[in-house]
Amino acid sequence: MEQTMPVPFDVRLMNMLATALFVGCGAMVLAAGARWAIHHPALSIARIVVQGEMEHNSAVSLQANVMPALKGNFFTMDLDETRKIFEQAPWVRQAQVRREFPHTLSVTITEQDAAAVWGAEGESRLLNSDGQMFEGDSADPDLHSLPHLSGRAGRSMEVLGMFRALAPIYAKLDNPLVALDESNSGSWKATLQSGAVIEMGQGTETEVRQRVSKFAESLPEVTGMYKRSVASLTSADLRHAGGYAVRMQGVSTGSASATKPAPKK
Length: 265
Hints:
Number of strands: 12
Order of helices and strands: HEHHEEEEEEHEEEHEE
Strand order of the largest sheet: 6-5-4-7-8-9-10-11-12
Largest sheet: 9 strands, mixed
Radius of gyration: 34 Å
Helix content: 25-40%
């Protein structure tokens, strides 16, 4: 019977080393080929498709503004970073970005919904429905109907919340609330469509809303006492304990009648 001689250890070692070297070289060649293919100009982004309901942007303007900031090609582009670049554009609230083989980038845009103008004149910005500030042209004529809000830094959401709580109350007077300001001390001031200014004092949303509700309910009676209409109101101060002071057109602001507290309810 023929017997097989065992392969010497050094020969087996050489065979294993040769196999490992062959596999390693093959892997390097494949990696180099993949790297070359991924970075090949043919795989660059050649087309950006922008869609969504847009009133303040256009697909052309977004492409022109964003294209120079994009990095990478179809395979290497960081989609999350690309999304952030689109969301930095004015009026863009959210962007969804995805690849479409072989060289297209598809972007779906959701625009901001402007709810108010925020800040001092000349430095104003816009607030969306969540009270978040965003970049946009606050001087746009289409935005003139928005309320103007101002307050302490970081308080835009709270000020918008207070506006929403008070607006329905003032609307009952047929004199809509058009501006609301929170001072550094936390005192609230409202400006109505007629130009009347209402000092509402400090307090929580519930406290201020209750104070304004009592004022709005009793104002017709108070103005009627002086044979005036609610529309004659020029200012009011709700910071008096148990009542408020008013000024009306045709009533001397220095007289006792002009500052007489409203009857308690």
